[in-house]
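Hi P.,

Sorry for the delay on this. The queue was packed all week, but I finally got your sequence through. Input first:
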Amino acid sequence: MKYFSWHILLNIVICMSSVETLHPVIVRGEIWRKKHDDGSYHYVYNMYDIHTGPYAPEPQLKTKINNLVVTQREVLIRNFKQLNPKSTKILIEDMASNPDGTYVMPMELLNAIDKLSSNADELLAKFFMHLKTNGISQAFNIEYRQKRLNTITYTMLRGITETLAIIANMPMIVAQLGDNIIKEYNAYQQAGMTEALLLKFKPQLEFTIGDLKGEVDAVLNKIKNYQDGPILSQYYQMESDNIKNLNTKINQILNSSQEKTFRVFIRTTNSDIFQMVFPVYGGHLLDVNALHEIYQDSQAIQKTFLIAGCAHVYNVADMLPQLDYELIYETGINKSIVKRAVKNINDGTDTDTLMNMSIEKASNSLQPTITAMVELLTVFQKRNPFNMSFFDLLLVDNPEAGWQPGHGVIQ
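Then the structure:
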């Protein structure tokens, strides 16, 4: 049974981090504006994306969405290259890339992961890195959990390769599990995903619990020095307090295990729920990072572009009216559908509640989120609700042309 828990967690974490969805599909776009005293505007372009991997749409729809992913990436890069880097900023959530645009994971390991997938083109489509290599200097990565999400992926891969090697040499277990276990073992071997390969990169990817906690602490310390006005200061304080007050059990675990590597910690700690919730612990700090950049940009540049997961963009958009921004354009998935998914994701930030549940109850509590995310994708079954002309508006100086106050948003 341990093999199957590793396998499920691997699929979830890989889809979240460094393997399958870095550049995910954009399902909703918004344009917000804030008027300055001199009559000029600061624009915020919100792009809500969703990672297709964890929600496994049926094959025909997945192919359709993957093709859209490639098209969106190409159009965005082409348009971003035409923008003035001095008057624009692009904020990206990319867990696979470092701030300088390089991969977090070694390329040799990424290539092996790539071979395990049926969709190689999507796997290495790391959007932030593509922007950097295309000379788009105004791109900034707001993700901060690179060590955590990549060491989790590395640890899961170590667990799977070791387990497969053991099971493949135990005929009685193979007989019970069927030929699929041998096929999977052979697939890992043929892809080069071996114990020897993973051990080669142990110094680079096997971080301690203290290293992972340090990523969160570094952001919390930076927040203390932000001077972003009373509204955002209150919001930052609330998020900082939530990390402390809604995650007391995880914080206790992290504080008492800082010298252990994540791999050793997982092998010696029997907590499947911890493994379930730890990847998203402190996730709202991405929202803080985005809002800080937007606030700092509001007087200095003309346009800020935010491309991130639906929940992060939704939370940022929820704050923009309080900062005197107004919505002037929207396209794509209806916001009410996004809201249903985001509500359940935001509820999951209270990890103390989840840590008090049985693994079965905690897993069941995630089902509404999965259902809502699947609903987001299945909208594409009949048609693409996202108007690609949205990307043309990235280049327009007055995206609200033709729009008048009181006329509602441009459709």
